[in-house]
Amino acid sequence: MAYIMVDIESDGPIPGDFSMISFGAVLVDEQLDKTFYGTLKPISDKFIPEALAVSEFSREEVLVFDDPKQVMINFKAWIEETCQSRPIFISDNNGFDWMFICWYFHHFLGENPFGHSSYNLGSLYKGLVKDTFKTFKHLRKTTHTHNPVDDAQGNAEALLILKSDYGLKIRF
């Protein structure tokens, strides 16, 4: 299996009514050198200024981002080129990140190359340390900047540490 760590930025809480404006993905392996970055033009006139501000993009900037369908076509092609086996979606907050990626794949391409399931990095960590109040975020090496590639990179680094230092049985 090929684990793809994903992070997204949006201008609101749900896909369809609001837009995914950028996302990053990293193939989880020892090198962490295979990445994807997409910026997507909004699909809706609705946006929440505070949500958009997290990404540090203005509404004017995102309005000239790339066509969402083409970005999803490019992402699917990257997944197919990068993964030698079944791609597995994993993220820090898969309830949020998965919701957008899954919706965009199905809406624009009619399919999702990740299938119907995803993994949550935080839940993996909580299970390993047997404490639902603990967070893995101290394991990141790359600073969490809200640039989705940086954030996916830091989360991928944490997953590698879960394997090497915490005994997580996982194959990349």
TrEMBL record:
MF term (GO), any: nucleic acid binding
Top-level taxonomic group: Bacteria
Keyword terms: Exonuclease, Hydrolase, Nuclease
InterPro entries linked: RNaseH-like_sf (IPR012337), RNaseH_sf (IPR036397)
Protein name as annotated: Exonuclease
